[in-house]
Structure formats: structure tokens, C-alpha cells
Amino acid sequence: METLTWERVARATGAGGDPEAAVRQAYRDAGLVEPEHVVVLSSPAAGAVAAAWLTGDDARRQALEEAVPAVRGPGGADRAQALFGALRPVGEPGRSVRDVVRTQPWERARAALYAELGPTGWAALWDQTGGRLWPQVDQLVTAVRRGLADLGGEALRQVTLDAVLGQHDAPWLSAFDGLDGLKRVAECAGWWWPYERVAIITERPVELHLDELARLHRADGPAMSYSDGFALHAWHGMPVPAEFGASMRDLTPERIRNEDNAELRRVMLEHFGYDRYLAESGARPLHRDETGVLWCIDLPGDESITMVEVVNSTPEPDGTSRTYFLRVPPWVQRAREGVAWTFGIAEEDYRPERET
């Protein structure tokens, strides 16, 4: 597949294909006996809980069962109890076969390509395939891992090390020929856990919202969500509380000032708008000259936000002139100094009268 197609695989949502058949093929491709049990679950949260429960001792199993709901959302406790009930008849999963199913085939495929192409050729191939896609997908993988750690602590974080990443293995799979079983799983499933006797497969998200830099982002709901209620909330890649989006609809300058978390306060300001905040908070300019107006927003327990208000010298088609707010370092004391800084020059070298 071309890289663009693999990008679609990494971002795909909803049901697709037959994940159980795909996983069984991946076992066969690795020279393994197919698993006796295949458990298909709705999210990586449910999959991680199942993997931690199946591979844990009695104390861990009891702790997981007492930590319900293991999956967030309405009815989460009932779903968690149903999950544990379904796992009890499965029995011992055996050892993890992740290395045999995933890592060793990858190493062989990479070694063959490296021997064929040489170091320069391999580097060029990686730049054109997985190297382009991995930074985007790595953000999603990191966000899911963080969400699982927040949900279940060290037990769930540790169990992610046994997971094959399904659609999120797209960057690596895009670079290799063969690996048909692994590619088939990636095309139709999310994270999955392969053990000798049991394979745990999870579905892809039902919703995925990204910004222009491929970071998780949504103001009015979860940025990534699964059918069982497990969800990740984020603003331009930064994790935010689940209720944060709803609170953004009723923002006021006072609410922004009273937010204790500095990172969330910056998000609120960005969403509210710096110009609107300046207007509604009664802020006063620090300095004014022919280049613009220097403003400062004092934030409790955080670095002040300093901006220069400038008017575009080129009129819009309707004859109006657009106003912009340029973020500058807090040490700036004069409007001209701030505008010069945005051009990367010293204040004394900035001469707007020479602009064309």
C-alpha cells in the first residue's frame, strides 16, 4: 500500500473486515498454532483490562474487579462485570507470543530490505514510508497509553508492552513487503494481545478528531472515543478533563483567571480569544506607538502573556483593515520592540516606513 493509504488505515474508525480471521492468519504466518480462544472487545481499555486480568495473580484480578467500572461511560460497571464473567471460562492464556508474531517477522523483513538496499537505500525508503507517518501515529499511541495509565495505573500501563498495535502499526507495516497477516489485522482492528492460547482483539475507535498537525483535538466532546465509552479528551494534543469541553461554552475572563491549572488556562485563553479577553477583562495597554499597541495579560501563578496589536497595512477587498495580535516575549516593553522581535530584528533596525 502507498503511504497515504496507510495513513487512512492508522486513522480509520468503525468496524472493518474480520479481525478474528486476520489474527489467526498472523499466528499461522508466524509458524504458531492458532489460539484456542479469540476474545473481541470494544476498546484498548477493555483489552488492557482483559490482558491484565488473564495474566495476573489472584490479588491483581481482585484489584481489577474492585476497580470497576473498568470502562468509562454509562453502564460501565455492568460492562466490566460482563467482561470478567466472559474471561473466567477462558483459563490461562499462556505466555505472550508478541515477539514471535510481530517483532521477529519485522526484524527479518527489515534485515532483508537493508541487505537489498543498503543503508542509504533503506534510509530513503523509510523516509518515504514509515518515517513520514510515524510522528502522527506516535501521538495517538502515546495518548492511548496515557489514557490507559490514568484509567488503571501501573497494571494497565505495563500490559500495553504486550500489545500489538493493529492499525497503529501502520508506519512500520507501510515499509515492508509481506507480513500479510499483520497487515490484514491492521486494516480491520485496533490494539491486540497475542498469547499462546488466547488472542485479545480490540475494535477501532468510533470517532477520531484531529487538528491540522494530526494531534487529538476537539472542543465539544471526546477527540477519540470507542463504542464502550472509553474516550480521550484533548485540545491540540494536550489532554484535558472530560468536562472541559462543556465548560468552554460558558467561559468568562473571571473563569479563566480562576483556573488553577496553567496549561488549561492557556487553552481557555486560546479558545476564548486574546482580543476578546483583552476587551472584556478591562485590560489597559502598556505602550502605544505608530507600530501598534502593547498589551499584557497577567495570569496568577504563570508567566504573563504579552501581545502587540497591529493593523494590517494592506486593506481587505472590502476596504477594511484587519487587526492582528502577535504574541511576543514577556520582557518586551514597547510596541515597536515587540513588532521588531516578530521579524527577528532589533528594535532600532525596524523601520516600518520602508515596508512595501
Structural overview:
The chain is built from 14 helices and 12 strands. With 356 residues, it is an alpha+beta fold. It folds into 2 domains: 3-208, no CATH class; 253-354, no CATH class. A 4-stranded antiparallel β-sheet has the order 9-10-11-12, sandwiched between helices. Strands 1-3-2 form a 3-stranded mixed β-sheet, sandwiched between helices. Strand 10 (292-297) and strand 11 (305-311) form a beta hairpin. The longest helix is centred in the N-terminal third of the chain and has 31 residues, at 98-128. Mean pLDDT is 85; it is low at 70-75.
Measure the end-to-end span: 48 Å
Number of DSSP strands? 12
Q: What's the helix count?
A: 14
Q: For the residues shown, what is the average pLDDT? A: 85
What is the strand and helix layout of this fold?
Blueprint: H1 3-11, H2 19-29, E1 37-41, H3 44-54, H4 58-66, H5 76-87, H6 98-128, H7 130-159, H8 170-173, H9 180-186, E2 192-194, E3 198-202, E4 207-208, E5 224-225, E6 231-232, E7 234-235, E8 238-239, H10 244-248, H11 253-258, H12 262-272, H13 274-280, E9 287-289, E10 292-297, E11 305-311, E12 323-328, H14 335-342
Parallel strand pairs: 1-3
Antiparallel strand pairs: 2-3, 4-5, 5-6, 7-8, 9-10, 10-11, 11-12
Helix pairs in contact: 1-7, 2-9, 3-5, 3-7
